[in-house]
Each structure stands twice: as C-alpha cells, then as structure tokens.
C-alpha cells in the first residue's frame, strides 16, 4: 500500500478539513495538501524521477516537508530523510550511497551543501520559487500502486560504529507500524493534531501516517523545533495535541510547566522514547501533567514497533507491581514477537538479562546494499537489537543498557542505568550519565557525570552514601564529575561515547 493513497483517499472524503498548520494557523486543507503532493509528483516525473528511485530530504521541520514527502511517494519513489543537523560531507555520502536522484532542502541546508555535491546535482529548496512552481503545477495521475515489500523510506542510522547504514522500510513495514500504533499506543481522531517538535527526518516524522489516515491536523511550531514554552502555549490553542518527545524533552516540558503553573492543557498524548526515562522523571511528569504519557520502544530497524507501555500503566499507582511496570518499556506490540536471548540465541529464563531480539511485520527489510551488516543484524529470522533487557512473567520488558554501555569491573557486569536511577533519587541531581573508564586494575571503573539543580551544592560523599544504601558496593561510582551539562545529540540522547572519549583522552595525557 502506497502511503500516498491514504492522503488521496482522505482528501476526497474530507477536502475542507484543516491539514497543515504553522503554529495555530492553517496553511493547507487536505484537498490542498493532496493536490500539492500530486503536483510535486508530476514535477519530479518531468525531471526524470521514476518509480523506485530515491529522493532525499535535508531540511528542518516545515509543512512543505510533508508536501514533498507525499509527492515522492505519490510517484512511487522512496524517501531518504536526512537529519538537518548533519555535516554536508555526511549528507553527500548518504546521497551517493542511496543513489538519490534529487534532494529537497531548505535555504540553510542548501547553502550548506554548496560545493559538496557533484556539479549539476538537482537541489530544490522548500523555501524557494522552484518548489512553489512544483507544487502549483499540473497534478500527476493517482498515486502509483506499491506492493507491501517495495521500498518507501530509506533511513540512515547514526553511524556510531562506522559509516551509517540505510534501513530499508517497506510499505508493509509502515503499514504494520501504523496499525499497531492504533492497537497498542493510542487512538487518533479527526479533531486531533500531531505536533512536530522533534526532527521530522526521524521518529517524529513517522507519526504523520496515523494522522493522515484519520484526517487529523499536522502542526509545525513557528520556531520549527522544540521549545517547551512555545509548546505549552500553543497546545491550548490547537487542542488535542499529540507529540513525540525524547525523555530529555519531557524533562524540559515538566520543568517549564512547573515554572508557569501549568498542567499540560491542550496536550492529549506525549509518546516518549529514544533514551532512558528515569523513574523520578516520569513520576514527576505524571504528577505535574497528568495521565498524558505513553512509552514506546523501537529502533530504526523496527520503528516504534517493539513494545509499548500504555498510559494506564504509566499513570497507575495501585497495582502491586506498578513500580516494576513503570520502569519497564511495556509489552510486545501486536505485530511482533519479542524475546531475550543469550549469545547463542537461546531464550534466557524470565528475569535474567540477555539481548533483546524481535521478529515480525514491522522489522526492516534489511540494510541498503549492505548484505554483510544485514546478516549480522537479522539472524534466524530475528532482529538482534544490541539492547540488553529482561522479561518478567507477565511479558513486561525492562531495558538494562545497550550492550556497548555495560561496564565490566573486576569481572562483574554493571548496568549504568541501575546506578543512574539511584543517583536521580537525590532531589539535587538534575541529570546524570554513568560510563566506564578503562582501569589497569579493574578493567573498568564506574564514573558518574552529574548535573546539579540550579543553586544546589553537594559533596561526593552524599552521593556515595546514597549508592551504598541502595545498590551493591561494587556498583557505586569510583569517580564523580560535576558538570554544567551533558553532551547530547539533537534528539536529546546523551552521547555517552563522547564522555568515554573524554575520559580516555584525559587518561592518556
């Protein structure tokens, strides 16, 4: 099923329904959205783009992004969304690797790419007259029919272990992800709105499908990204707003809501994922903003679609095991099977830690032109996530850490998240990240990077006593580093690799 068919259908049924908004201002109805996407498809076809070709998008969040995206699909081509904060050389490599025929940019990213692409490579700014003429031109035919196994979305991973890998998401993967959202995460109605505060090139952009299918509104904040104060002010005007937020974004929303005396008015659902959500943070979030939170667990290779923790579990404080459930990432979504295995692929007993594997209709087709990495990641029909976790008797999955983040000290495994959870219990600890530092005697020692709340002063001895009171002595940090901020990427994930590299450089001096 071509995603553009969903847009075409809803535009015929609800032509005057508001579709695209900048802030609280509607800039396109569904009829206009559909017509513009069809016109973009016609213009692409005129420029030689054909079904099955790849077309890249390298732009910050804007409503024109969705028009270009659906124009690509309307033609039967595959979209290659690229993080707008990447370096131009990285972008040029992805364009070459994907063999893209054309790239949509904004004015800033177009300037950034100048000189990096082959001479004459087609670059269209979503802010320019060229794109205006494309979307106002003659419409193409109906959306090109696509089968479930045909490529729709080519998403490049972050490349922390080398060159980025292109995750091939088929029409069937997208359909599975969308339908399980309705069954396991949240319902969407026409009066709802999806707000794009995180990059549309990644997780936030995937929410467009559910809201297009239901004829709901798509809102890009005027700032084009995440600003807690703007979102809390915009939501009551737009109403019934859902959004994706990384845990650090949730933290900032809650801090701002407390500061302004707000309770998240106008917000329907905040889906959080993309990093560890600590117990203290989600407890405060529900206390301040109410039962608006749903957690999902997925990754680029199985987008949004591994497990889900519904709002009832996130907000519940009555079940005998509510705390364990709250600290989990929920249970397997409807379209997949989830297991926890040892290095040989054998299921480990319930409650024991192993690598999380997933199988089902949402799992990617493979990596673009990379059969070796595909074979390493998809084995025996299962996607090996690289994440460590444990399943309980009720099927709730609790993440431990990425396998690369586990600290091995004196022959014992130490899971950073466990230590971080304890440190965050202290009221003066705002953020924390725990990593391992190479040590000649122990192999690795535990180092905690701590961000204190403004105006607070604390001693290492205070945190050490807290750890000794709650976890085994060998797990407590040997070193505490008090810092003003933690390094993060533009999705709000803490860059633990940067912290480890910093420690390694200091040790080598």
Compact overview of the structure:
It contains 17 helices and 26 strands.
Model description:
- The chain is α/β, with parallel strands linked by helices.
- A hairpin with a 2-residue loop joins β1 and β2.
- The mean pLDDT is 93.
- It is globular, with a radius of gyration of 23 Å.
- The longest helix is centred in the N-terminal third of the chain and has 17 residues.
- α1 crosses α2 and α9 packs across α10.
- It has a nine-stranded mixed sheet with strand order 2-1-10-9-11-12-13-14-15. Strands 16, 17, 19, 20 and 21 form a five-stranded antiparallel sheet that branches. Strands 4-3-5-6 form a four-stranded parallel sheet, sandwiched between helices.
- Helix content is 34%, strand content 27%.
- The protein has a domain of 103 residues: GMP Synthetase, Chain A, domain 3 (2-Layer Sandwich).
- It is built from 17 helices and 26 strands.
Show the helix and strand layout.
Layout: H1 3-13, E1 18-22, E2 25-29, H2 30-46, E3 54-58, H3 63-74, E4 78-81, H4 88-98, E5 100-105, H5 107-113, E6 123-125, H6 129-135, E7 151-156, E8 166-170, H7 171-185, E9 193-195, H8 208-213, E10 217-220, H9 228-238, E11 241-245, H10 247-260, E12 267-272, H11 279-289, E13 293-299, E14 302-309, H12 311-315, H13 322-326, E15 331-332, E16 336-341, E17 354-360, E18 366-367, H14 371-377, E19 378-379, E20 382-391, E21 397-402, E22 407-409, E23 412-414, H15 416-423, E24 429-439, E25 443-452, H16 460-470, E26 479-482, H17 496-508
Parallel strand pairs: 1-10, 3-4, 3-5, 5-6, 9-10, 9-11, 11-12, 12-13, 25-26
Antiparallel strand pairs: 1-2, 7-8, 8-18, 13-14, 14-15, 16-17, 17-20, 19-20, 20-21, 22-23, 24-25
């Amino acid at each position: 099923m071509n995603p553009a068919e969903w847009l075409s259908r809803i535009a015929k049924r609800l032509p005057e329904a508001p579709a695209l908004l900048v802030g609280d201002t509607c800039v396109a109805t569904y009829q206009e959205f559909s017509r513009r996407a069809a016109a973009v498809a016609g213009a692409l076809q005129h420029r030689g783009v054909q079904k099955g070709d790849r077309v890249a998008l390298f732009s910050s969040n804007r409503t024109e992004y969705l028009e270009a995206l659906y124009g690509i699909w309307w033609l039967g081509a595959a979209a290659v969304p690229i993080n707008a904060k990447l370096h131009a050389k990285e972008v040029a490599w992805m364009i070459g690797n994907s063999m893209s025929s054309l790239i949509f940019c904004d004015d800033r990213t177009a300037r950034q790419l100048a000189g990096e692409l082959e001479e004459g490579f087609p670059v269209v700014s979503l802010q320019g007259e060229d794109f205006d003429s494309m979307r106002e031109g003659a419409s193409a035919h109906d959306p090109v029919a696509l089968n479930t196994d045909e490529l729709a979305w080519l998403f490049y991973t972050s490349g922390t272990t080398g060159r980025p890998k292109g995750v091939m998401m088929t029409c069937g993967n997208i359909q599975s992800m969308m339908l399980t959202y309705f069954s396991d995460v949240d319902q969407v109605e026409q009066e709802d709105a999806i707000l794009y505060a995180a990059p549309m090139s990644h997780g936030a952009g995937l929410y467009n499908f559910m809201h297009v299918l239901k004829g709901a509104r798509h809102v890009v904040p005027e700032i084009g990204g995440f600003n807690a104060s703007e979102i809390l002010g915009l939501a009551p005007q737009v109403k019934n707003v859902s959004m994706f937020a990384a845990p650090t974004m949730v933290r900032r929303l809650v801090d701002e809501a407390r500061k302004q005396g707000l309770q998240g008015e106008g917000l329907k659902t905040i889906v959080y994922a993309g990093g560890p959500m600590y117990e203290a943070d989600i407890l405060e979030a529900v206390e301040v903003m109410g039962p608006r939170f749903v957690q999902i667990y997925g990754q680029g290779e199985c987008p949004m679609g591994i497990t889900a923790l519904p709002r009832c579990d996130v907000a519940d404080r009555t079940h005998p095991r509510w705390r364990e459930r709250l600290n989990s990432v929920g249970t397997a979504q409807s379209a997949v099977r989830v297991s926890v295995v040892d290095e040989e692929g054998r299921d480990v007993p319930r409650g024991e830690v192993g690598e999380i594997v997933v199988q089902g209709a949402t799992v990617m087709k493979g990596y673009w032109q990379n059969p070796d990495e595909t074979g390493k990641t998809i084995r025996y029909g299962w996607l090996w996530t690289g994440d460590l976790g444990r399943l309980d008797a009720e099927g709730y999955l609790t993440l431990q850490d990425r396998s690369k983040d586990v600290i091995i000290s004196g022959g014992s495994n130490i899971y950073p998240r466990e230590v971080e959870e304890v440190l965050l219990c202290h009221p003066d600890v705002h953020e924390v990240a725990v990593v391992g530092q190479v040590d000649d005697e122990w192999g690795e020692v535990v180092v905690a990077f701590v961000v204190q709340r403004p105006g607070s002063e604390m001693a290492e001895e205070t945190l050490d006593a807290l750890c000794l009171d709650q976890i085994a002595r060998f797990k407590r940090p040997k070193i505490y580093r008090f810092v003003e901020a933690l390094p993060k990427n533009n999705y709000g994930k803490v860059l633990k690799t940067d912290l480890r590299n910093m420690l390694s450089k200091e040790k080598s001096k």
